[in-house]
Specification:
By secondary structure, the protein is mostly helical. It is built from nine helices and no strands.
């Protein structure tokens, strides 16, 4: 069973479960439910697995070393850099819904349509634009901060 089921689906499973079935639930979803500190990791890697995208490729395309990117994804090191998480989501081909869920699980604000920069990112992700250089072009045309980090 997958841990990246929508919350409403998990709620429905729990609502129809008998108390003696609770252990089955935790065995099936325990990684994503029991360890909130690793929730982003389990969710993100589950989505990548479903999309058949390798983590090492994601780090490379996001402009991060495998070592540092791995520490961020595994949440061994915490970052306050929302753009880093966004880059990981974009190059991992996450949908808008998946990206917002990943941001939320990492403890960061979801993309907000009333923010000009976020609106550009929403449009890019919704149109499956997963190349960071193309997204940077969209942002720069509107005098907004690029998603990539300056070297």
């Amino acid at each position: 069973m997958e841990i990246n089921k929508p919350t409403d689906e998990l709620d429905s499973i729990l609502a129809n479960m008998k108390p003696d079935q609770l252990d089955e639930f935790f065995n099936a979803y325990g990684k994503g439910v029991a360890d909130e500190k690793k929730a982003f990791y389990y969710y993100y890697t589950g989505v990548l697995k479903d999309k058949r995208i390798k983590l090492k490729d994601v780090y490379s395309f996001a402009g991060e070393s495998e070592s540092y990117g791995g520490q961020i994804v595994r949440m061994e090191k915490r970052t306050k850099d929302r753009d880093l998480i966004l880059r990981l989501c974009i190059v991992g081909h996450l949908s808008l819904e998946e990206t917002n869920r990943a941001l939320k699980l990492y403890g960061m604000p979801e993309l907000y349509s009333k923010n000009s920069r976020d609106a550009c990112l929403i449009v890019a992700i919704s149109n499956r634009i997963y190349r960071l250089d193309k997204i940077d072009d969209m942002l720069e045309k509107r005098s907004l901060q690029k998603i990539t980090k300056d070297e």
